[in-house]
Amino acid sequence: MTLLAPAPVTTRHGAGFWMIAGAFLIAMAFSTVPTPLYPLYSARDGFSTLTGTIVFAVYAVGVVISLLLAGHISDWTGRKRILIPALGLELAAAVLFLAGTALPVLLAARFLTGLGVGLITATATAYLHDLHTAHRPGASKQRFEIVSTAANTGGLGFGSLLAGGIAAFTQTPLRTPYVVFAVLLLVAVAAVALTPETVLERPAEPVYRPQRFTADRAVAGYLAAGFAAFAVFGLFTSVAPGFVAGTLHHPSRLLAGAVVFAVFGAAAAAQALTGRLTATAKLALGLAAQAAGVVLLLAGMSLASLPLFVLGGMIAGVGAGTLFKTAVAMVSALAAPERRGESLAGLFLAGYLGLTAPVIGLGLATQAFTALTAMTGFAVLILALLGTVAALTMRRLVIHPAMPPTPR
Predict the structure, then answer these.
(1) By its UniProt entry, which Gene3D superfamilies does this protein fall under (predicted)?
(2) Does residue 21 belong to any structural domain of this protein?
């Protein structure tokens, strides 16, 4: 059995909680630095929309492989032993981005980024849970829920905004953002190194096995929620900037980063403001907002209206953020302490599969159909996914009112 480290109420755990949150945010922000830059790569090297989708997909494949093979092992090796090498992978990716813009280099850099993110997501989330519990034993879990999900989704938006802003005002838009983030990643490594460990090593290390899913129906509903939420996130971290520049005729890099930031900022704000809602209310809000947002996105593209497109993205972000926050909270609460990292790795694996598969399909569809037709197919898929989430989660919560609201 994994032993959590003794957890006296100390300022080190309190400070460590915020240092890990900052490192988590920086790591996730780095993963979206290329998002507003894809059109620049396309103009420089003639990449098509499909090529950009492939570059994005390689990142997502790296995440999935990492989650499958190692996203859960911090439960017995310790959180720091996973986070520091994972941040090192992101640093190596930053060096590759600085080395050149050739397609093989970009593919390698994105793959390394994905490997790092796959290790970081579940591990950092579990680490924050441990540190929160150690610093505030017996207290509400609401701070953990808000900070962990905001660092994740807020980081994704922050990376695009900062990269887009730097690219708009520098002479080297494909280099300077990576220099800035290389420095930030070094700061993140130092922050992790200074944070106290929360997991004691097992006397006998367990037999290794890749990540596996549980067959429990209730948990499956939260996995489906993660898949649906990340499908929307994937849209805005891959092909949406191309839609804004091409279909909507707004080529500004700063605008591209701001649009992505608006979506993830809305998601982070929703996660922060829905803490007092019950699990049923959160799920209902998430499902309704994401469905309405996707429909507005489609309308914005059909009418070539940037304001409507952005509004739809923000509403979809509110829905996706609320769904994902609820999923993280419920999976964290349902998991045994010695399997918390493993359970969260399963959730993030489902999420990153959602990040990958629908967007790859969207990129392929743009080769045979117009962007609007491809987006219509994407919208239909998302609506079907949301219906599946409702069937797997809402009915159970209504039938079993004794089930507690989202844990705090």
Answers:
(1) MFS general substrate transporter like domains
(2) yes
